[in-house]
Design a protein that fits this description.
214 residues; alpha+beta; five-stranded mixed beta sheet
Length: 214
């Protein structure tokens, strides 16, 4: 005759305990993978900025100390996404020597009725040129806030590293396309309180912009 107390539930078997531990381990690994995926985004972007991987342009602190006779054609492509802006490059292309410091200009007009903050994302084609295309100054390094009706001209100072001529992936290339796309800035600050007398940028008779008091 069994001495087991029928009022007590049976003890879990070894198989059930193993399955429970396995479920806990799987859940922990899954949560860890999700966290790693989110953490990998800024790490990946930082890696691209440092190495020029995936066509990402690198930032430079100083211009190179030598300029080669070989010229490269730089073409410019611009776009906007979900912004009431006109965004244009003031030059279709530029011919620059490797190692030469050059300046390009871009123009943005806000056709909306309130200030809008955007961030320009950029890359180059071919992707292999990303490691050698360097920027000394660029509007893409930070968010840009443009007032309603305002037009702003942005300069961009850059060079192509002379080592472009020796890399087997780039030495045969004669053209590089630099692309910009302005997106709404995710971390844009809230719109400031308007003073009683505000100013809106409007077109001037000379085709530029001027402040018109309201």
């Amino acid at each position: 005759m069994s001495s087991a107390d029928p009022s007590k539930p049976p003890a879990p078997s070894a198989t059930a305990r193993r399955n429970k531990r396995l479920a806990i381990i799987c859940a922990t690994v899954f949560v860890g993978m999700i966290g790693a995926a989110y953490a990998a985004v800024p790490v990946y972007r930082a890696f691209c900025q440092v190495t020029g991987f995936d066509g990402t342009v690198r930032r430079a602190e100083a211009a190179p100390d030598k300029v080669l006779d070989r010229k490269l054609t730089i073409r410019f492509d611009v776009n906007t996404r979900n912004l009431p802006w006109d965004f244009s490059a003031e030059q279709v292309s530029q011919d620059v020597k490797l190692g030469e410091t050059a300046m390009a200009f871009f123009k943005v007009t806000n056709h909306g009725d309130k200030p809008v903050t955007g961030r320009a994302i950029y890359n180059v084609v071919p992707e292999s040129a990303g490691a050698y295309f360097r920027k000394l100054q660029c509007f893409c390094f930070s968010d840009q806030t443009i007032q309603p009706g305002e037009t702003i001209e942005f300069p961009m100072i850059y060079f192509v590293d002379p080592e472009f001529a020796t890399d087997f992936e780039t030495k045969g290339k004669s053209e590089v396309t630099l692309s910009y796309t302005f997106f709404p800035a995710v971390d844009a600050p809230p719109e400031p309180q308007r003073a009683q007398a505000s100013h809106v940028q409007g077109p001037s008779p000379l085709g530029g912009t001027q402040a018109a008091g309201l």
